[in-house]
């Protein structure tokens, strides 16, 4: 089965109904304004482990929400685990 | 397979030394090709490749092995054509049978818009050295009699761009031949030896911390596929890379010969027949960034639904195996090769879903850069600095899925 994303409104739905939204954070140590723009436009944490991310339920309730997911297993991490 | 090749190849495994001229992280195709061309073209053999698993255990041993040069921007066409040419000579050069087979690739068009795109692609490819022509439905049918030209009634084949040099080769033979070629000239390959950190000397990278101890290096090359962000972070770099899974599957034996490689941008899948007669299918990446090797049933379901429009005979076949790799996707669907702004640290990444065909040219060019200190013209447009310079190499349409 494909990844199921837990929409707070609609419940678990196939990942194909959603649009992935990364939460982008330019690290504080990047101070030069041009470097910050470059980082924001292109760079990713691309983390191996638990990440917080946003998803848009495009083919459902059309709401944005946040979840935590382990990118090494694709398991959704419950808020209580963190 | 691996034990078999190792026995056949009589490779000598040596313990890691305290220092090398060049340390390459990752024994996939790109890392091994870099070592191979450093040895064969530049006589640089004080080189080690550190691999956390086994040779070819990453994407280089998991891909659908399509080799072609029909890309969408001039710099890419030139670069991939170089790789197509090197692949054609690689069996002779390494004296190993790589099961390289030229099959031709047909890129179908099912709409007027796609016909225009494929016509343009054919012109551009030919102009920059990768012979391609647009052909009509009759010729397409001749090249691939199994195609349902009505596309199941919904995806009629209005024509295709045909790239006769499209080919496949056996992936693990390619990586092992490169490993052997590098090792018999003196390079070391260390399997089961992950690189866990980089040794920094002020601002420059001066070596690697491995599971088998610290190793000094004149140059460190990251060739770690989907795991590149982690290595780059050790050098203080953030990269324009996101890792996504890509899946593929094969069916059981199909009795007829299926000649060419077929692809469709509108149906988003591609297919070819393996030497064992299996039908091998691939498609697009999974939507979420991920390092998980899990495969999904709905991938097979979805690809079959689309493939059956063009290849109805597949309805009588069974899916035998399915697998996944984790791909280093760049934002412009072009590779990232060369210097990094950090002294002593080089990258070859952004190989995404399209880097198997690039193994010989990627290795050759990286080796030239490291040996001469000059960025070769062929890869100059693909440097990491292009994002800051507003010179992205957007080529999604042709890098697409394979
Ligand atoms: C299903 C699928 C189909 C594909 N189809 C095609 C195709 O038809 N045509 C095409 O051209 N391309 C295709 N590709 C893409 C192609 O496989 C890759 O782009 C190519 O193999 C990349 O080679 P590489 O050497 O950069 O990476 P890899 O082969 O992934 O090698 C990287 C190596 O680095 C090792 N490593 C990682 N971290 C460390 C560490 N810390 N220390 C030591 N070693 C480490 C890994 O174990 C791995 O062996 C496909 C990919 C997939 C997944
Ligand atoms: Zn919803």
Question: Can you walk me through this structure?
Answer:
The complex is a heterodimer of chains A (82) and B (402). Chain A is mainly beta and 82 residues long. Helix content of chain A is 12%, strand content 34%. In chain A, strands 3-4-5-6 form a 4-stranded antiparallel sheet, with no helix packed on it. In chain A, strands 1-2 form a two-stranded antiparallel ribbon. In chain A, a hairpin with a 3-residue loop joins strand 1 (4-7) and strand 2. The longest helix of chain A has 10 residues, at 33-42. The mean pLDDT of chain A is 94. Chain B is of the alpha+beta class and 402 residues long. Chain B is built from 10 helices and 19 strands. The longest helix of chain B has 21 residues, at 74-94. The radius of gyration of chain B is 21 Å and the shape is globular. The mean pLDDT of chain B is 96. At the A-B interface, helix 1 of A face helix 8 of B. Bound molecules: flavin-adenine dinucleotide and zinc ion.
